[in-house]
């Protein structure tokens, strides 16, 4: 039944189409009415077309407005996104600016403290410069370096005068024709003093102090038959040298490394750093080093003494002479040349070049 309905509808539509295609016959009496109806229909149709056109225009404009609003909405969304990103960037920049501001504040505090310290340093520098200028003026003035130089020359002249008195009191002179056993090289400690035996010493036998020759008889020649007067003369000569060295050191204001205990021909020299016996235990050596060592005295004479100790005493006496020579800028002639070093010391100080040193 359902399959037959479509065929019936199709036939009815065909019949209606044929009826519409067939011309309609209008009577003359109905012509005016029909014409009026057609005119009204035409005017209505035109009005409908006009309204349609208006509606189409309005729809088109509305469509454009909607499209524009949609695009504007999209643009607003994009602008919102950009604004959010800008806000994020501004937030980061704000945080960064706060950090930078804190750093700048700390830097300003540091710079202000440095400026204050620079101001203090500048003030101190200006004061130091003023003091330096005052010192320079005082040095270049009447009581300055020139005055100091004059005083130094006067002091050295005074030292020359005092040492000239010492030279007159204990003259060191050359005497020709002395025996070889009177030379100071006969010391048993000559090889122990650090000077090689092959060096060329000054002939000590040709030098005398106050007319006495410095003679030290070696221990191998010391016997019962040794000339006692010669030993006494040598001890007296060593006492003269010790007294001369003590006077020169006091005039030059030089503290001697090895102090002297004067006693004429029975003088002694002190050593504050004696050699420690290696046979001692470590505890004994520590106890000695921890306490103040007493100076050991060595005799500057041979009578009744060990010749080795006497030779070491003469060696220490020559070290004092070497100290005085180094003080005035002169080299020592050697560790075994006592009288030669004393003569060189007196000659240098009594020379005119000593004033200009």
Automatic annotation (TrEMBL):
> GO CC terms on record?
endosome; lytic vacuole
Q: Which residues form a coiled coil?
A: 38-82
Q: Would the keyword Coiled coil turn up in this protein's UniProt record?
A: yes
Task: Give the span(s) annotated as Disordered.
Answer: 1-25
- Please name the GO terms that the record assigns under molecular function: SNARE binding
Domain of life (superkingdom): Eukaryota
Q: What is this protein called?
A: UV radiation resistance-associated protein
